Amino acid sequence: xxxxxxxxxxxxxxxxxxxxxxxxxxxxxxxxxxxxxxxxxxxxxxxxxxxxxxxxxxxxxxxxxxxxxxxxxxxxxxxxxxxxxxxxxxxxxxxxxxxxxxxxxxxxxxxxxxxxxxxxxxxxxxxxxxxxxxxxxxxxxxxxxxxxxxxxxxxxxxxxxxxxxxxxxxxxxxxxxxxxxxxxxxxxxxxxxxxxxxxxxxxxxxxxxxxxxxxxxxxxxxxxxxxxxxxxxxxxxxxxxxxxxxxxxxxxxxxxxxxxxxxxxxxxxxxxxxxxxxxxxxxxxxxxxxxxxxxxxxxxxxxxxxxxxxxxxxxxxxxxxxxxxxxxxxxxxxxxxxxxxxxxxxxxxxxxxxxxxxxxxxxxxxxxxxxxxxxxxxxxxxxxxxxxxxxxxxxxxxxxxxxxxxxxxxxxxxxxxxxxxxxxxxxxxxxxxxxxxxxxxxxxxxxxxxxxxxxxxxxxxxxxxxxxxxxxxxxxxxxxxxxxxxxxxxxxxxxxxxxxxxxxxxxxxx
Length: 510
Ligand code: HEM
Description:
- The chain is of the alpha+beta class and 510 residues long.
- Helix content is 53%, strand content 9%.
- It has 19 helices and ten strands.
- It has helices at residues 2-24, 46-62, 82-91, 103-106, 115-128, 131-136, 138-152, 164-180, 188-210, 217-220, 224-251, 260-266, 269-282, 289-295, 307-338, 340-354, 370-382, 414-418, 461-478, and strands spanning 66-71, 74-79, 388-392, 397-398, 403-404, 409-413, 479-483, 489-493, 495-500, 504-508.
- The strands form four sheets. Strands 1-2-6-3 form a four-stranded mixed β-sheet, sandwiched between helices.
- The N and C termini lie far apart (97 Å).
- The site of protoporphyrin IX containing FE has 24 residues, from helix 15 and helix 19.
- Its main location: endoplasmic reticulum.
- Heme binds at residue 458.
- It is a peripheral membrane protein.
- One of its GO terms (molecular function) is monooxygenase activity.
């Protein structure tokens, strides 16, 4: 008898726990189909995926900022409240299995590294992203801006054109120079191929995310997309392996520090060639991120990173850096071209700082470009390049109104937080002025999340702002830009990207 009572009590407690837990669980998003859940939202290409991200975010906001979403058997949470997002981002650092789909490409660089590795590596990498190192890149940013203007000259006065192709190429060259020291300018074919192949690999990762039967490795491994992905990744790895190997050779050389002329003797001809181009371009002995990583020492006095670590980090910096800044620049120029009064105000600020001169941007100029900074932030608020990121909930977490239970994936909607009512009734409008007055900004400092939030936020934030301010200030001193952002159609291919209608026209300023 006592056994039967015990079984009833245990069963009763189990049911009670389930009931109490369900009372704290958030509601499910609408259109939750039996067994399939919300998988139908993932079906279709990048255009449909972007629409789905917007729908999920708006529905979640309506449901009280926390909601459940099911992808077949996989149960997820969605968040749109900025403060709740910060709690999750600062408590759970593991990103969940979706990021594993990028591991064949990015290995265990910062973006995809498991938490144990990420913690030590992020601390070390933070030291290489200091202001002094970034200031050293300003020369590259100025040279690359001038190069872009030279290339755009052929489009002057000719009506609308696709500025994305120029900007993608230029951004890749810039990030390559600062991450590896390699000057891709002289490698036009390699540059064009790198951009195309990177795009293909991004799309293949998205293809896997969209088709849940590919979540199982054995099915994915049999697919033709995976076979093509392997070939593409082999090409991308081939490029970075070549560079990193040569840099490593140079760093392990006993005469590394004995001056540029001596260094020549111990490095291969091809490296010498790259060095030559690099020094010619910058005119200074600048160190790339890759060089700084090789120089870092661990607690035992030896190199902190293995060859593979450096390759993974350099690959990650290139991928995380070039597409994000390029896409933001494409969208920001389009917005500036759509709002004449905004363009006039930026130009006025540029005149205050630079007069009529087309001189280089100096580090002292950057903090003075406050209106331009507001424009860039407003562009990132309306069009966050990474509109949704994920975290694995690895402990039960109490939020404002709900508890999230361990084991589920949490989708943090940056898009949703940026269009949240905390931004006011004009949340959908492009209004850079809101950034100039603390009264017109949301109370919570976590409401702007374009670079994510917490300790696992974007390591390249300061780099990105510096590069964007430099290039736009060169561009607008030379050109008047027109465009119509309302005609632009966007898609989501791992990152937010323009699909069509994003063209601009440029006229030289008198
Ligand atoms: C407008 C430009 C950029 C935007 C909007 C942006 C946005 C973001 C976001 C939202 C994350 C968090 C991703 C996640 O949690 O899954 C992130 C992470 C990261 N970003 Fe950026 N990023 C930009 C530029 C850059 C640049 C220029 C670099 C490198 C030079 C860079 C390197 C990284 C890296 C390495 C991470 C992973 C950090 C970690 O996990 O510790 N980003 N970025």
